[in-house]
Amino acid sequence: MASNAFFDNYLPIAILTVIGFVFVAISLFMSRMVRPSNKTKEKLSIYECAEVPVGDARIHFNIQYYLIVIVFLIFDVEVLFLYPWAVQLKKLGGLGFLEMVIFIEILIIGLAYAWRKEALEWIQ
């Protein structure tokens, strides 16, 4: 009986997964068959807003941009954790509140470290 209930619960998920993969495969196959494939020098060239491309595309970017993005992502993820926590705060009680305070403190320590190392400065 237990294995029958297992299949009853997960069979629709398996069927929808297979249908999803088949749909994607058929869509990709049909788009490859229908689209025109006329590769010319113009089509293979780099497009930069109707400007003629100048120089190498592989230029060095300042590492500051990457550090700013990483700090932004960390705090963006923090906000994603804060929403469900705030909704369930009454159920979580004091322990849930304490855990979130510790989580926020760790992030603030990380921000202070980045600030002290001048990772957030634009001009140096």
Automatic annotation (TrEMBL):
<feature type="transmembrane region" description="Helical">
    <location>
        <begin position="12"/>
        <end position="31"/>
    </location>
</feature>
<dbReference type="InterPro" id="IPR038430">
    <property type="entry name" value="NDAH_ubi_oxred_su3_sf"/>
</dbReference>
<dbReference type="GO" id="GO:0008137">
    <property type="term" value="F:NADH dehydrogenase (ubiquinone) activity"/>
</dbReference>
<dbReference type="GO" id="GO:0016651">
    <property type="term" value="F:oxidoreductase activity, acting on NAD(P)H"/>
</dbReference>
<feature type="transmembrane region" description="Helical">
    <location>
        <begin position="65"/>
        <end position="86"/>
    </location>
</feature>
<dbReference type="GO" id="GO:0030964">
    <property type="term" value="C:NADH dehydrogenase complex"/>
</dbReference>
<dbReference type="InterPro" id="IPR023043">
    <property type="entry name" value="NAD(P)H_OxRDtase_bac/plastid"/>
</dbReference>
<keyword id="KW-0560">Oxidoreductase</keyword>
<keyword id="KW-0472">Membrane</keyword>
<dbReference type="Pfam" id="PF00507">
    <property type="entry name" value="Oxidored_q4"/>
</dbReference>
<keyword id="KW-0812">Transmembrane</keyword>
<comment type="similarity">
    <text>Belongs to the complex I subunit 3 family.</text>
</comment>
<keyword id="KW-0813">Transport</keyword>
<feature type="transmembrane region" description="Helical">
    <location>
        <begin position="92"/>
        <end position="115"/>
    </location>
</feature>
<keyword id="KW-1133">Transmembrane helix</keyword>
<dbReference type="InterPro" id="IPR000440">
    <property type="entry name" value="NADH_UbQ/plastoQ_OxRdtase_su3"/>
</dbReference>
<protein>
    <submittedName>
        <fullName>NADH-quinone oxidoreductase subunit A</fullName>
        <ecNumber>1.6.5.11</ecNumber>
    </submittedName>
</protein>
